[in-house]
Amino acid sequence: MATAVVLGGGISGLSCAYYLSTIARQYMKKIILIESSTTLGGWIRTTRYPDGTIFEHGPRSMRPVGKAGYNALTLVNELGLSSAVLPVIKSHPAVQKRLILVHNQLHTLPSGPSYLFRKVPPFSKPFIWYLLQDLIARKKKVEDESIHDFAIRRFGKEIAEYIMDPVCRGIVAGDSREISVRSLFGNLFQGEQEHGSVVKGQLKQTQESKLEDFLHNDLAVKSKSQGWAMWTLRNGLQSLPEALVRQLESDNLVQILTNAPCKRINFVDGKAMVMFGESSLLANHVFSSIPSRTLSRLLSASYPALAQYLSSIQSVHVAVVNLEFKGKVLQNEGFGFLVPSSQKSNVLGIIFDSCCFPEHDGKYSHKTRITCMIGGKWFRDVLGDVDTASLDSALELAVEAAHNHLGITDPPVRNHTSVQKGCIPQYKVGHHRILQGLHNEIQENSLNLSLLGSSYEGVSVNDCIYNSKLAVEKFVKKISHS
Fold first, then answer.
1. 262, 428, 353, 261: which is closest to 56 by C-alpha?
2. Which residue range(s) make up the domain with 465?
3. Of 20, 47, 296, 425, which is most buried by a Cβ count within 10 Å?
């Protein structure tokens, strides 16, 4: 029987502990989750007001796409949250209208067949032209390259500047000229490498996609049959980690320790000695879901090469400003808008929360909620040093952006500003080599260590949950054959 330590109480760590208590239960003696702060849930943070209004300060929705997407719905179903799911179907304006800001004008990104043969600004050609360019462009065998360079080669400058650049800023708050296409958009990269073009690759992947194993509960089946594009929970996405915590706290196999920062990990004779606070414990396996740079500091004395790989994965900071206005003040319905890095604006983008999930407007629905994202790769340029950044300055920039880009002249009636320090890892070109180096170091040193969380193979909540499950399944396979 094994004792496992899970480092980190975000969604990855909580999911890992849950899967250990279910999938691996017959092999477990004890599951101990250690969190350095006083709270659990990581970057999923929700503020709930007495009138029912909800502000999200981190992830706010999830997509039921692929194995990871359907796996997350399976988890929601197992936790008894199915009745709390708020879905958005593909025909909804929040799905159909995704905007970008170019020359201080909002433009709808092409979406669906109706845009194929029409020229819409800021694009100079009908969208079919860019797809044809990908089909006739020569395949280039590359190990990796930036999202920007990849998009230029396959589709041309306009797609690189007006789609891939702002989307990269929206997903990881990063620079498309630095971020790896292989690591962030692996399906696009593989499309070219395996099938000669992105379009052919997408068609092939759609044909070969086998999700039957993930469509074994009513919620996942419903999401597919009804055409969900995204979903959240009625009381905010924080309800998901809260449900995991309740489940784990009721399990006698599981112990959760908060306010217990880990100080060091030593691996000796197939065991791990984990030192935290004033205590230590011996474990058969460590599942680390803490940021790679934090883990690096715990291992630097004993495993400098491993620590170096871990410390090379950088993260960026994002200021999140939630604004509530009286009345319906948006001229455009939609998901929101993103700002290409070539445009003049102090925000990465603004999400139209009231359009996406009006249920979160609370009792008094005649209002408008939006969320502004500021910083990322450009945090220091806009707000200065993260440790001294002014919340008031972030609020002012958000209100100014709402005025300049959305024409909202009234002051907000309610607001919330937070700075999420180091919240999004940056998968820069060559990130796959770092992952390979980590794998080799762990294997060569025979470390009973699994790396989880957004630092490695996927920044979305779906990815974090699914990768935790895969790590536990790998652990079960290993321990059952030992």
1. 353
2. 2-43+238-313+428-480
3. 20
Q: Are strands 414-425 and 54-56 parallel, antiparallel or unpaired?
A: unpaired
What are the tokens at 312?
């090379």
- Span 213-227, average pLDDT: 84
Look up residue 428 and give its DSSP letter.
Answer: B
Residue pair 358/365 in contact by the 8 Å Cβ criterion: yes
Q: How many residues does the chain have?
A: 482
User: 316 and 383 in contact (C-beta within 8 Å)?
Assistant: no
Within a 13 Å sphere around the CA of 124, how many CA atoms are in the beta-carbon half? 5
Q: Is residue 205 assigned to a domain?
A: no
Is the predicted pLDDT of residue 215 greater than 80, yes or no? no
Q: Is residue 259 assigned to a domain?
A: yes
Instruction: Give the amino acid at 50.
Output: P
User: Does residue 371 contact residue 60 with C-beta atoms inside 8 Å?
Assistant: yes
Residue type at 138 in one-letter notation: R
Query: Taking residues 158-164, what's their average pLDDT?
Result: 97
Structural domains counted in the chain:
1
Supply the DSSP symbol for 350. E
| C-alpha 322: how far from chain center | 19
Question: Which token pair is 65?
Answer: 């796409």
Query: In angstroms, rounded to a whole number, what is the distance separating the alpha carbons of residues 453 and 438?
Result: 14
Reported as a pLDDT band with limits 50, 70 and 90, residue 113 is: confident
User: Which residue from 204, 107, 220, 201 is spatially nearest to 163, judged by alpha carbons?
Assistant: 107
> Can you read off the two tokens belonging to residue 338?
């993103």
Q: Which of 313, 265, 254 is nearest to 449 (CA)?
A: 265
Question: How many C-beta neighbours within 10 Å does residue 338 have?
Answer: 27
